[in-house]
């Protein structure tokens, strides 16, 4: 039997096994059956026997067909509810921003400019790679597109200048550049609400649990003070812990200068893309002052991008990654909301409140943050992590924390989604890309992941003491 067939059988077997087990005390049979399908969807997202979007889509179809939510009319209304979610469309629009950066060449130009002016030493090259990611992060919710699509094609050529290849002197420069790139994109993914699509998904699920929608400004007020020092520290720490043997790199700025000459002068479309991205960022930050919703801003900017030919309509409708995420996240939002509709979250909250009610609030908060972070070792997808754990952790937090503690706690909890991607070679979207470059062995990656992951988790815990 093929591995794909086994991966297909496991989620189905899980549903069948759980389906015929009597529902636990306090949970309806419908709720238990929904939970069985939910667990199967999470396992399917981890194993991926079929594309992840299809896993989620199949889950909502099965729930609707079996009538677990209610009448046929209620079932289909629930199944399609995720597609009307404004956060999902904000994510979709931001994918178009990423396409605009790539198509205009602005993303590549930013990376080359950083290398030209900061790349005279290996440490400087590390910071050039880091700042290339930082500049793009607020506008690109796919760290795969940002780090793997924009930074990687430029940065991976730098070690070749110094004759550093996966099978020849990888420690000379290539290993250092690879680690800095993945480590810093994890930090920037936590730094901005719009730097990682699962951040936005998590915030939407948190809103459903608490009734409070975390804004771009609220996220930044907590995460920027934590992430900026961590961002500045990361390339230097990698230089100390995993140093390149090549210390100077005078050839890199010269190479970047030649590459910029090849690109030619900044085009009108690059200027326009930069202006539109800046306007979007300003309105995301200050939109409430003008009565403008963040998603309205995003889709309006996308319309302008198409009308001004920054991207074409064909570019938009043929962007498989964006539509894949649209279907995927819409399905997962519906599945997560279903947990509340069938009473699963209320059941979890009631049971955990009994078990944890004697725990001191500080101990509870730290325990939840550490557990949420370490459980990522079992997930190959940040999105699967969000879908499986955010509703459960929120059911616990809402019942045991005070209203004043909930908002900063949820920001730090969701904010850890980016940095936790550092711990494994499969922990976040661009990890397989940088690991696949071949400069860092699997054993070394796990070791470095443990070191940097411990530091990143410590910063999140520190944030809990400061802000909660």
Automatic annotation (TrEMBL):
Bilayer topology: Multi-pass membrane protein
Presence of keyword Disulfide bond: no
UniProt cross-references to InterPro entries, sorted A to Z: CitT-rel, SLC13A/DASS
Segments traversing the membrane: 5-25, 52-70, 76-101, 122-140, 176-201, 222-242, 271-287, 294-313, 325-348, 360-379, 385-402, 409-426, 446-467
Predominant cellular place of this UniProt entry's protein: membrane
Compartment annotation: Membrane
NCBIfam families: dass
Family per record: Belongs to the SLC13A/DASS transporter (TC 2.A.47) family. DIT1 subfamily.
Protein name from the UniProt record: Anion permease
Natural source organism: Arcobacter caeni
Lineage: Bacteria, Pseudomonadati, Campylobacterota, Epsilonproteobacteria, Campylobacterales
């Amino acid at each position: 039997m093929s591995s794909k067939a086994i991966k297909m059988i496991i989620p189905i077997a899980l549903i069948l096994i759980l389906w015929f087990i009597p529902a636990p005390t306090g949970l309806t049979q419908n709720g238990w059956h929904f939970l069985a399908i939910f667990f199967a969807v999470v396992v399917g997202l981890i194993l991926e026997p079929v594309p992840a979007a299809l896993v989620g889509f199949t889950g909502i179809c099965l729930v609707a067909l079996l009538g677990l939510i209610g009448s046929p009319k209620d079932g289909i209304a629930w199944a399609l509810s995720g597609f009307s979610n404004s956060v999902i469309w904000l994510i979709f629009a931001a994918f178009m921003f990423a396409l605009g950066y790539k198509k205009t060449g602005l993303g590549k130009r930013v990376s080359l400019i950083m290398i030209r002016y900061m790349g005279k030493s290996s440490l400087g090259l590390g910071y050039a790679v880091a700042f290339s990611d930082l500049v793009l992060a607020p506008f690109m919710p796919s760290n795969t597109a940002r780090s793997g699509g924009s930074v990687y094609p430029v940065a991976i050529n730098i070690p070749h200048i110094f004759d550093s290849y996966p099978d020849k002197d990888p420690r000379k420069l290539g290993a250092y550049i690879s680690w800095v790139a993945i480590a810093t994109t994890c930090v920037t993914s936590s730094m901005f609400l719009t730097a990682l699509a699962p951040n936005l998904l998590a915030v939407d699920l948190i809103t459903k649990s608490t009734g409070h929608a975390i804004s771009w400004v609220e996220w930044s007020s907590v995460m920027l003070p934590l992430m900026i020092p961590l961002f500045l520290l990361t390339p230097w720490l990698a230089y100390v812990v995993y140093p390149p043997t090549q210390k100077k790199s005078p050839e890199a700025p010269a190479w970047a200068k030649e590459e910029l000459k090849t690109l030619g002068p900044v085009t009108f479309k690059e200027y326009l893309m930069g202006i539109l991205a800046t306007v979007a960022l300003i309105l995301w930050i200050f939109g409430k002052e003008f009565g403008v919703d963040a998603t309205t801003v995003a889709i309006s900017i996308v319309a302008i991008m198409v009308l001004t030919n920054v991207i074409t309509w064909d570019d938009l409708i043929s962007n498989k990654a964006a539509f894949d995420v649209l279907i995927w996240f819409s399905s997962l939002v519906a599945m997560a909301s279903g947990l509340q509709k069938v009473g699963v979250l209320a059941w979890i909250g009631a049971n955990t409140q009994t078990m944890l009610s004697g725990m001191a609030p500080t101990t509870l908060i730290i325990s939840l943050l550490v557990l949420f972070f370490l459980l990522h070792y079992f997930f190959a997808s940040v999105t699967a992590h969000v879908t499986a754990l955010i509703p459960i952790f929120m059911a616990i937090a809402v019942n045991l924390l005070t209203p004043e503690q909930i908002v900063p706690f949820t920001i730090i909890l969701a904010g850890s989604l980016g940095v936790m991607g550092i711990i494994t070679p499969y922990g976040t979207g661009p990890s397989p890309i940088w690991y696949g470059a071949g400069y860092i062995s699997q054993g070394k990656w796990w070791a470095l992941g443990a070191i940097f992951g411990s530091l990143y988790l410590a910063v999140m815990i520190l944030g809990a003491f400061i802000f909660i």
